[in-house]
Amino acid sequence: VVMIGDIISIVIAIVAGWFLARRALIPIQVSWEKQQQFIADASHELRTPLTAIMVNLERLFKHPDHTIEQESEKIMIGMQEAKRLSRLVSDLLTLARSDSNELQIMNQTLRLDEVAIKCTQVFAQLAIAREIRLETDIQQPIEMVGDQERLHQLMVILLDNALKYTNEDGRIYVSCKKEGGRVSILVKDSGIGISKEDIPYLFDRFFRVDKMRSRATEGTGLGLSIAKWIVDAHHGKIQVSSEVGIGTSFLVTLPIKP
Ligand code: ADP
C-alpha cells in the first residue's frame, strides 16, 4: 500500500512551497511593472510543479490498494516536482531579498582558489558520470575580499549550466586567475551554445532558451539572474560569448577589493 509518509511529505512540500513563495513576493523596491511581471512569472512557474504534484497525488488516491512499487512512478514524479518547487522558492527568495536590499554581501578576506577547487571537485565527479572532460587552471593563492558563500554559489551556477548544456564527450574548462587588481573566473564549455538573439535576455528572470527543451533539463531560469546579482554586488562584470553548436564561455571579473 502506498506509504502515507510519502503523501504527507509531498503535501508538506506544497504547503511550505506556498508559504515561502508568499514570503518571497513580499514588497520589493523595484518598479511597479517589474514587480507585477515578477509576481506573474513566479506564479506561473510555481503552478507547473504544483499541478504535477496534485495530479499525481489524485491518481494515487484512485488506487488505495496498490503497493508502493506499483505506484513508484507517480511518487517519483511527485518528489521530483516537489524538489523543483523547493529550488524555485529558494531562488525566488534570494532574488526578492536582494531586490529589497535585505541580503548583504559580506566583506571577508577569502581564498578564491580554495573556493574554486572545492567547487570543481564536486563537479569533476558529475562530469565523469556524464563522460565530460573537466579541465581546470586555478592559480594559487588568490586572496580577495568578498562573500565566500556567494562566490561559491556563483561558480556552482556557472558550472552547473556548463554541465547541463554540454553533451556527452564534451569538454568544460575552468580557470581562475589574478591579474593586477582583479580576479577572473572563466567557465567555458563545448556545449549546445546560445544564439545571438537569445544572449541579451540570458540574465532576465525566468528566461530559458527554448522553454520546451529546457524543461527536460533541470533548472528554474533564475540561476543567471542570481549570478548577475552576485557579480554586481561585488562590483564586477560578467560577459558571455557563445556560438550555437560550438559552446559557451562565461567570464567574470571582480576587483580584489571592493
Ligand atoms: P536554468 O536554470 O534554466 O539553467 P539560468 O538562468 O541559469 O537558468 O540560464 C538561463 C538559460 O540560459 C538556460 O535555460 C539555458 O537556456 C541558457 N544557458 C545558460 N548557460 C548555458 C550554457 N553554458 N550553455 C548553453 N545554454 C546556457
From TrEMBL:
Enzyme Commission code(s) on record: 2.7.13.3
Reactions this protein catalyses: ATP + protein L-histidine = ADP + protein N-phospho-L-histidine
UniProt keyword annotation of Transmembrane present: yes
Cellular compartment(s): Cell membrane
First-level EC class: transferase
GO biological process: cellular response to phosphate starvation
Single Gene Ontology MF annotation: phosphorelay sensor kinase activity
Membrane-traversing stretches: 1-21
Keyword Iron attributed: no
A GO cellular component entry from the record: plasma membrane
Alphabetic keyword roster: ATP-binding, Kinase, Membrane, Nucleotide-binding, Phosphoprotein, Transferase, Transmembrane, Transmembrane helix, Two-component regulatory system
Taxonomic superkingdom: Bacteria
Residues annotated as domain Histidine kinase: 41-258
Protein name, as recorded: histidine kinase
Membrane topology listed for this record: Multi-pass membrane protein
